[in-house]
Amino acid sequence: MARIAIDMDNVMADIYSHYLNYYETSHGIKLDPQGLHGVPEGEVLPEGLVRKFLLTPGFFRTAPVMPGSQEVIKALMEKYEVFIVSAAMEFPQSLREKLEWLHEHFPFISWHNIVLCGSKTIVNADIMIDDYDKNLRHFKGRQLLFTAPHNVHLTDYERVHNWEEVAAALEVEVPAARV
């Protein structure tokens, strides 16, 4: 059975919309998501606020689920060995929050299949789904770049824009009742 490594932030969890919601709540300013295309993730908000939000207790725990991710990951698990792999060590409070988030939104994923690490260069899988070039660049298997505002100009990878495209690329059917 082929093994898939799936990233969390901006792949399973919609971190960009979460940044924008946090910013609107804290500053009363609604930003246009279209204006973020091609902007590095750390620069999407002024005054170093991205890092501040990432260090805010509860930030990772309350991130919205990426549409379609739950249903497609369930379908992938019927055909592949699925591991959730997240580089969480830079923000230590995220370890517990990400684990709690996964237990709430993806209770069907065993703790055996969750890897919270520092560098993803250690990952040994056949397929990796990630939004960051730095994580895919050294990966030896099939590389699927999940579209996020910061990576819209990258062309070196097989791109998937959403979870429906992940299902098609990896040839899994998601029952209509589950979509």
From TrEMBL:
UniProt GO BP: pyrimidine deoxyribonucleotide catabolic process
InterPro entries named among the record's database cross-references: 5'(3')-deoxyribonucleotidase, HAD-like_sf, HAD_sf
Sample GO molecular function, one term: 5'-nucleotidase activity
Transmembrane segments: none
SUPFAM superfamilies recorded: HAD-like
Catalytic residues in the record: D7 (nucleophile), D9 (proton donor)
Family: Belongs to the 5'(3')-deoxyribonucleotidase family.
Protein's name in the database: 5'(3')-deoxyribonucleotidase
